[in-house]
Specification:
two-stranded antiparallel ribbon, 6 helices, mainly alpha, 156 residues, 6% strand, 2 strands
Length: 156
Amino acid sequence: MIAPVPDNPDLLFLLHDLARHLRLDADRRAGAYGLTRAQWVILYWLEKQPGLSQKELAEIVEVEPITIGRLIDRLEASGLVERRADPHDRRIWRLHILPPALPMLRRLQDERTDMLATVAAGLDPATLATLKTGLARMKANISAELRSKSLEKDLA
């Protein structure tokens, strides 16, 4: 079912509300597998880029390394992820998905596909491509602005 679209929605509130609804949906879906949304995100990135360090993963998901460390602790205790020593730097742990996580990741990919189908219902491929490009540009714009303001603050 495609919901009606309000007349002249405010873009900032619309983006905020969409992100909030997506987080709630992802929380619900991850919870069905005994995971948090954050753990799902970690598994997603480790499947795409095996061997990331905790610091690298923290940068990708934009959280503090200590937060990643705690999430990895839980995933490791569940037998889904393991830390392996870096062969070139003994201070670094490389993160790898373990075989028991693979069937769960396949089901979570189905969840992602379903989420995208829901979000994209009623939109043609050209519109989706434009949205993707536009949202990526918006993210780059706000990220650059935040880095600039942070740098200004650090220099003050």
